[in-house]
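Rotation project, supervised by the postdoc (A.L.). Task for the rotation student: set up a whole-complex structure prediction and record inputs and outputs verbatim in this book. Inputs entered:
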Amino acid sequence: MNTPLILDGKTLAANIEKDLKVRVQRIKDITNETPVLATIIVGNDPASVTYVKMKGNACTRVGMKSLKIEMPEETSTEELIEKIRELNRDKNVHGILLQHPVPGHIDEMACFNEIDLLKDVDGVNTNTFGRMTMQLDSFKCATPYSIMTILKHYNIQIEGKDVVVIGRSPILGKPVAMMLLNENATVTICHSKTKDLEDIVKRADIVVAAVGKPKFVKAEWIKEGCVLVDAGYNQGNVGDIDLENAIEKCSAYTPVPGGVGPMTINCLISQTVESAERKLGLI
Amino acid sequence: MNTPLILDGKTLAANIEKDLKVRVQRIKDITNETPVLATIIVGNDPASVTYVKMKGNACTRVGMKSLKIEMPEETSTEELIEKIRELNRDKNVHGILLQHPVPGHIDEMACFNEIDLLKDVDGVNTNTFGRMTMQLDSFKCATPYSIMTILKHYNIQIEGKDVVVIGRSPILGKPVAMMLLNENATVTICHSKTKDLEDIVKRADIVVAAVGKPKFVKAEWIKEGCVLVDAGYNQGNVGDIDLENAIEKCSAYTPVPGGVGPMTINCLISQTVESAERKLGLI
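Outputs recorded:
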């Protein structure tokens, strides 16, 4: 019987946290400063509230501070931009997270693009994306970065592999496709207008599912020995892949929960620590 | 016998030029100003000299001015950046073209990234790429934009098609892949580390070759009815596709020369006119 490798993001994140804790302590010892992640939440979408709380908790665990900014549902784009500019100027803030999604009347991308590149630790500014794609110095979009960190940690070969990314969102499908391309994968990007998705997935050595639809990717579509990366997290604790049935065919998979999710928060925290180290001249 | 559609970029460019001429005249009539494209060439690579001359001639044909800046081979990154900043500040300059490639000791990408987004009419700044990818208002990288303009003009269906892009350069492969994705193609990006390139190309409805190697894509790889876009231009007037032998299998193709090349210059000029119109409040 096939026993696939579990790409355990939770344990990996916990291990990386130990190192981050040491780095944060070093920052404090040398500079007397504490790295700060500013988290902005607009409105009170329950899932977003939970995510922001989890991110705040992660800050606490590594010895960082989080500066929680809660803005009302009716906040305008201009007001949100003003807040971001204030945080850009704030010398005590090393990273800025604007929790996605913001209410529909706000121009989210315009707000993302106001975040100073040096504080864009969630990697959402279009220029952060552009610089990453062109392999210049930049932070990286957190969820795609989480996926890449997991694949590398578990020694999943990427170079020369046929990778199929399902989904093309600005903060997941598009950036992860570019990251995989930069690691020398042959990348196919699929989406709602793709024809014969099943046939395309059947050829993949690695599948990255980022659709946001529960069990959208069927077990029958999976090639024997494929690596499954499930970036989805839907109601009922299920991902975008029918993992339950696909497990016996794959060679490795990210569980849901406990795969991509925990490492995403870890990447956010890790980039905030890096931002602080850079600002304080420690790297 | 199969008679494929010739995706004639030369005639298309000539037709669009007529319209550009009218727009330039309108700018002059209303504002008394003339759109100006600043062209920077560093060193004297013969091909680059020719390209810059062709771009200058295109400016003249539509009634625009070009401001030719020639810098010596030994120019440093800092000196080039200083020149770009000067042009960014110059109110009479509406577009800036830094002819690619610059001498090897110069950090080309750093220079591209100094170009003001509002004057980046060649579309080479990483944030221009990022904004284009995320479908925000932006100029577009000239060669990929040329390809898209040709495909749209000749009513080549893109949505739902399997498109294979061969090449992943910052100013060709990567941006054209994102543009095709935004037009709802299913895009596969191939490169030097791709395995079984032949098999991948054989499945393509549209092939975009941007490798820079003469006749790299073989006729045997082409699916019957495929659309061939050849962005290559190699010594001996040949592209990256063995067009001579592939013509009988394809349904449409961009000739070399006379395909993507002339439209690329046209896109540069067109975006400079647009920049002037915007700056002068005419659009």
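Student's summary: Chain A has a mean pLDDT of 97.
Supervisor addendum: Strands of chain A lie at 5-6, 36-42, 65-71, 95-98, 162-166, 186-190, 206-209, 227-230, 252-253.
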